Amino acid sequence: MGYQQKLRGLVLSTGLLTTALMGTMAWAADYKQAPMLDAQVKDGKIPAVEQRLPEKPYVETMIDGVGKYGGTLRTTILANGDQYNLTRTIANELLVRWDPQWKKVVPSLAEEFKASDDATTYTFKLRKGLKWSDGQPFNADDIMFWYEDVFMNAALSPAKNPTFTVAGKPVKVTKIDDLTVEFKFESPYGLFIQQLAYGQGHLPVIYPKHYLQQFHEKYNKDGIPALLKANPAAGDWVALFNSKISLTFQPQFWQNLQLPTMNPWILTTAYADSDRVVATRNPYYWKVDTAGNQLPYIDGITWAKLDDPQLMALKMTSGEFDFAFRHINNATFKSVLFDGQKTGNYKFVDVKDLPANDAVILLNLNSTDPVKKKIFQNKDFRIGLSQAINRQEIIDLVWVGQGAPAQVALQPEHELFNEREATQYTKYDPKAAAAVLDTVLPKKDAEGFRLDETGKRFTINFMVADVFGLSYPDVMQMVQKYAKDVGIDIQLRTTDRARLNTMWSANEQDAYIWNCVGGLSEVYTDPRCYMPFQKADIFFAMKWSEWYSNHATGEEPPQAIKDLMAAYDKVNAAVTDDDRRQKMKDFLNLSADNFLNIGISRPMPKYMMTSTNLKNVVNGIPITGNLWHPAPTLTQWYFDKPTK
Amino acid sequence: MLRYIIKRLVFAIPTLFAVSIIAFIIIQLPPGDYLTTLLADWASQGGAVEAGTVAAMRERYGLDQPMYFQYYKWMWGILTQGDFGISFELGKPVTELIWNRLGFSLLLSLLTLCFVWAVAIPIGILSAVRQYSISDYGATFLAFFFLAVPDFLMALSAMYVMSAWFGQSVGGLFSPDYIDAGWSFGKLIDFAKHVWLPVIVIGLGSLAALVRIMRANLLDELSKPYVTTARAKGMSEFELLIRYPVRLALNPLISTLGWILPAVISGEIIVSVVMSLPTTGPLLLRALLAQDMYLAGSLILLISVLTIIGTLISDILLALTDPRIRFQ
Prior knowledge:
The structure holds two protein chains of two kinds.
Chain A: E1 5-7, E2 10-12, H1 35-42, H2 49-52, E3 58-59, E4 72-78, H3 83-90, E5 96-98, E6 105-107, E7 110-115, E8 121-126, H4 140-151, E9 165-166, E10 169-170, E11 172-177, E12 180-184, H5 192-197, H6 209-212, H7 224-230, H8 237-244, E13 265-269, E14 276-281, E15 287-288, E16 300-306, H9 309-317, E17 323-324, H10 331-339, H11 341-344, E18 346-353, E19 357-363, H12 370-377, H13 379-387, H14 391-398, E20 404-405, H15 419-423, H16 430-440, E21 459-465, H17 472-485, E22 489-495, H18 497-505, E23 511-516, H19 542-549, H20 559-573, H21 577-594, E24 598-599, E25 601-602, E26 606-611, E27 614-615, E28 621-623, H22 631-634, E29 638-639
Parallel strand pairs in A: 3-15, 4-16, 18-28, 21-22, 21-23
Antiparallel strand pairs in A: 1-2, 5-6, 7-8, 8-12, 9-10, 11-12, 13-14, 14-16, 17-26, 18-26, 19-23, 19-24, 20-25, 27-29
Helix pairs in contact in A: 9-10, 13-16, 20-21
Chain B: H1 2-28, H2 34-44, H3 51-61, H4 67-81, H5 94-129, H6 134-148, H7 151-164, H8 176-179, H9 185-222, H10 225-232, H11 237-243, H12 245-249, H13 251-266, H14 269-275, H15 280-289, H16 293-321, H17 323-326
Helix pairs in contact in B: 1-16, 5-6, 5-9, 5-13, 6-9, 7-9, 7-14, 13-16, 14-15, 15-16
């Protein structure tokens, strides 16, 4: 079955393989470039724009319309530990990509792709004439370099990235011709194309062979000792290689000005070298607008490195930035930023950063304490605790009304929204809660607290970390009071994130509170709150999730959980969009039946600030942990009145 | 004198070792290590991290080895090659990172010191000579007021006022146009335009202590017989004041000179963070938060070294300015 492909704004949905129609258009010779490149072309430093662009460039779908060249986008990052924001702003060029509405996957660096009927084999045909930012050709050899010499190299990749493995078996990549590669999995992996379109799918296309091979033992065994001598921080070739590129865009990636990329802007001032990071346009960027203008419109980007979000907000309101988003887009700064719109010359833009829930009580269903484990695993206990919570009161008092009572569920705007899943057991009803808890823990002590089967008071040692600016300690103090009303003793243990990390990795916690991803389409690839899934930051049943990834480890879960896992396997095996959607609905229904964790509030949209002069900005831009933004649409942003 | 200095230097060596060991242990006391920080970051980026990768990285960084061995390796590198290790987070040698920022730290400390002395000494003299007058109470009140206001609050308010009322670009030490430019006259002017705000904010906090020390010392001296004698001989009041009692009253201030050196690294971390100054303070804070242990350890080691050197310098200065100490 075919994937829908969106090219030049046309939606072509056909049978097995959709052949691209564009590229032969009459305006092939009419490509235009940014004025800042004219001089370089004239001097012969770079070839003319037709030669720099691929034969069939990617044609961007414009949001407002064709823009103008020029201007520098001034934005900001935290001075330390914030390289992720560089990544999210300019490093998201992939074989395939999500459309700006996050509805479907379309070809990007690949001109076309096709999936086999059994969802095991994927073929990608690259655009002809793509070039790295240094002008060298990008082709199948670069992808093979990643596969053979990085991904399959035990020293460089001691463990295989889960995006490229299924059931523990890594992908097999073969080169068909100079522009065609085939990814083959041993078992069905229908979600591969979706995964590849997220941020983590960048691996095959960030390794320029012509540059990196000099640091690889296989290609330059004799030359490496000399390179090591010149670079005392690296002890061996692996360290040397890793200091030139980072598979997860760690600071090393943003430190290497020589590294060729496929990104729209290239670094001129590195991450750790100065008080700001600077990038300028990549003359070989391979996208054009609908009128044949080479993208991006904006000449360069500067990130002021600031140590404190308060200063970010201040500089935003004094008009020193054209765009800001992370670190100051929370309730703390909203009123200041709202008042500063006029002086700062910016406007608010909605951001659909919508997880499945802002605050989720995660009881440890695999607790090492057998008594607690039995109680937590009892669905009636979870129902009772859920009904005891007055969610509206928490939302009103802690989050000044921002939110809605809900369980872990899809957002109502999403096609997978399941009302039962979202609202079950959310009604505040202490009587019903006490009644259902009486069936689980009927005995109480003199103070009214329930006793477990050994006759001791049943106490939940609840870990609370104050993260995400969501005031979890305040939330939990209220939950503690509601739980006391129905005879459940919750003891709060305030902690920091690092300690909690250590605890959940060792399976030591009784329970903790966290937020849950999966409010929009990311639920397909990341159902970590809907079933025992990968271990990332959600740990309510780590032994079962270990078992899920490898049956030889962890603990075998009960049948209901196994059914849930099987339902998700069916989602992964589906090949067509329709089938996948149906299987996902079945899975979510089953997840609602299991009611594994207790949600409190559905999140509301967040915001970012952009200059009033900026156009082509998506209002209601969707983002999530692995859907990086604004990179996918930043190339079409333009200044209506360039600042300089 | 030389013997005295050599003796002090010899005693410094075991102290430094002890401090470095304690620093190394303290950095590793919090649960987890740099990789747990990294894992948390990755998790919030939507990626689960495979156990194999983490184990391999832990091995590469040597984090899987016992603490004493890690310490030994670190110390050995420092002693034999001057290699302080690499920063895990930034992937750069620690020495390079620290050197980048040390210059501005030092400059800022010196400018602040000049500012504080230039303001505190006259005020201290004034309030001692005019004891219990309006100017004494006024100066004392102001000094205590600035002592009581937390410095980060002062930094925030000062920046807000400068930005909102005077429209000046605040934060950092340069405007965007000059950040990456080489040194030039224009850049120097730009620097001067920016540096005075942090200098004043940092300086005002330490004003009170110096004013009070100066005032108390001078009051002690003013009532001594030699002052009366000089006055009886007909010496002008101003000359008398500056020549004798003020000189003696300055001694305690000289002994505080030694504190500046360690403060270059660790001083005013909060102000530096709030105002985004390119000094070592924010670097140390982040290194501690991210458990970037070689970077944090080297900074702490450097602070200890500078404390010891600073104390030594102020001892020598004291001995030079005050013959009584020299001949004891």
